Automatic annotation (TrEMBL):
InterPro entries: Carboh/pur_kinase_PfkB_CS, PfkB_Carbo_kinase, PfkB_dom, Ribokinase-like. It catalyses: myo-inositol + ATP = 1D-myo-inositol 3-phosphate + ADP + H(+). Belongs to the carbohydrate kinase PfkB family. PANTHER family: HEXOKINASE FAMILY MEMBER, INOSITOL 3-KINASE. Keywords: ATP-binding, Kinase, Nucleotide-binding, Transferase. This is Inositol 3-kinase. GO terms for molecular function: ATP binding; inositol 3-kinase activity. It is an enzyme of class 2 (transferase).
Length: 371
């Protein structure tokens, strides 16, 4: 299903395809359910792209039990349940899993097949499965219909034990390795990057490794660069990587060069960790960000015209100032700041009453990324 965003001079015209299932997330700590929210990388990415006025087509599958209202209707599979994840924030470090939480897939919806994808071309494709729903043949089809494919490695290397606990397998053994030379960007968190050979993969496609509160690092064939983070009062790390990818692709769609787009990614990652579940962004803040992005695009266009293609990876002059202006947009007004710190996320999600408004409540007990 496609979102139509009213066209303004600031609305980009590139077409974007997001592929990945929505899911139901249950966040648990100390044996108690803290919150139940809409989840899945597709939901966090849609949220960011909509905030940046980027329209997109989304292919996602759910069961008849899917319980959240969304702007992009998923395919409802009558014989299947919606994918459900339980995220435990206090089960200790498991060697082969995410370090900040232990994730268990409790229910699994059907995979997304090549025939589920739209029969048309896109400029950008995003393969962002969470529960193993993206098959090698589905990614292959995405590569055929999209000019540039962005992949979250979690869509490729997650395996599930008999209890549904997420285990990671090496990228080489994932069944997707042969497709890497046909991808444009592969994003991994620092935990996930341990399951790939960055030095080998960067020869084929650009690798972006996210480092929680420390921002991210971009590796391409001939170089690498660190991209500075933004400050955040972390409450729940869920969706930070997804929102990062949404901001990164949103920045590129708006015409930013890679380092500046990665800053936008870091920015949305930092906004997301300050909320439980899916964040509801302040409209004035979004407006300010879009203005900053447009100004930055104009600054860089003159610079890009003078140089070759590779240059879109190099940090252009004014990058640090762009960081500062995004940072200051968080302080767009005292009112906005109050709204952001109060906002529990989207209205549909359920946060248990005893946890509501507790800003010091951190879903971080294993590894607190905010320290
Ligand atoms: N505590 C934090 N403070 C500021 N930014 C953060 C924080 N945690 C995450 N981010 C931002 O979100 C991005 C993705 O977070 P990360 O934890 O690396 O991914 P994942 O959610 O996949 O584990 C980071 O690169 C960073 O820009
Ligand atoms: O936190 P993050 O790694 O960016 O992404 C998360 C997934 O890992 C998780 O499986 C899903 O249930 C969450 O809703 C979210 O999509």
């Amino acid at each position: 299903m496609v979102t139509t965003i009213p066209q303004t001079p600031n609305t980009p015209i590139q077409s974007v395809l997001i592929v990945g299932n929505y899911c139901h997330d249950v966040l648990l700590q100390g044996g108690a359910v803290v919150a139940e929210t809409l989840g899945g990388a597709a939901s966090f990415i849609s949220n960011v792209l909509t905030g940046l006025s980027v329209s997109f087509h989304l292919t996602s599958k759910v069961g008849v039990d899917f319980k959240y209202p969304v702007n992009h209707d998923p395919i409802v599979v009558p014989t299947s349940k919606t994918t459900v994840f339980h995220a435990y924030f206090d089960q200790g470090y498991s060697v082969n899993a995410h370090q900040d939480r232990v994730l268990k897939r409790i229910e699994v919806c059907d995979p997304i097949n090549p025939s589920d994808l739209p029969d048309r071309k896109f400029d950008f494709g995003m393969a962002v499965g969470v529960g193993g729903e993206i098959l090698p043949e589905t990614l292959e089809r995405m590569v055929e219909i999209c000019d540039a494919v962005f992949v979250d490695i979690q869509a490729l290397i997650r395996a599930f034990d008999e209890n549904g606990t997420v285990k990671l397998v090496r990228l080489k053994e994932s069944g997707f390795y042969h497709l890497l030379p046909r991808l444009k960007f592969l994003k991994a968190s620092s935990d996930e990057a341990l399951f790939m050979e960055v030095e080998e993969v960067r020869q084929w496609c650009c690798v972006v490794v996210t480092h929680g509160k420390d921002g991210c690092e971009v590796y391409w064939k001939d170089g690498e660069m660190k991209i500075a983070p933004f400050g955040a009062n972390q409450i729940d790390p869920t969706g930070a990587g997804d929102s990062f990818l949404g901001g990164f692709v949103g920045g590129l769609v708006h015409g930013l060069v890679v380092p500046d787009a990665a800053l936008v990614g870091n920015f949305f990652g930092s906004l997301t960790v300050a909320h439980i579940g899916l964040p509801k962004f302040d409209l004035r803040l979004l407006q300010r960000i879009k203005e900053e992005v447009q100004t930055r695009k104009v600054q860089c266009t003159c610079w890009l015209e003078r140089r070759d293609d590779e240059v879109s990876f190099t940090k252009p002059a004014g990058h640090d100032e762009f960081h500062a202006s995004l940072s200051s947009s968080k302080l767009v007004s005292a009112e906005c700041r109050r709204d952001l710190s109060r906002s529990p996320g989207s209205v549909e999600q359920v946060i248990r009453p005893q946890y509501k408004g507790q800003q010091k409540f951190l879903l971080n007990s294993v590894y607190d990324k905010s320290n």
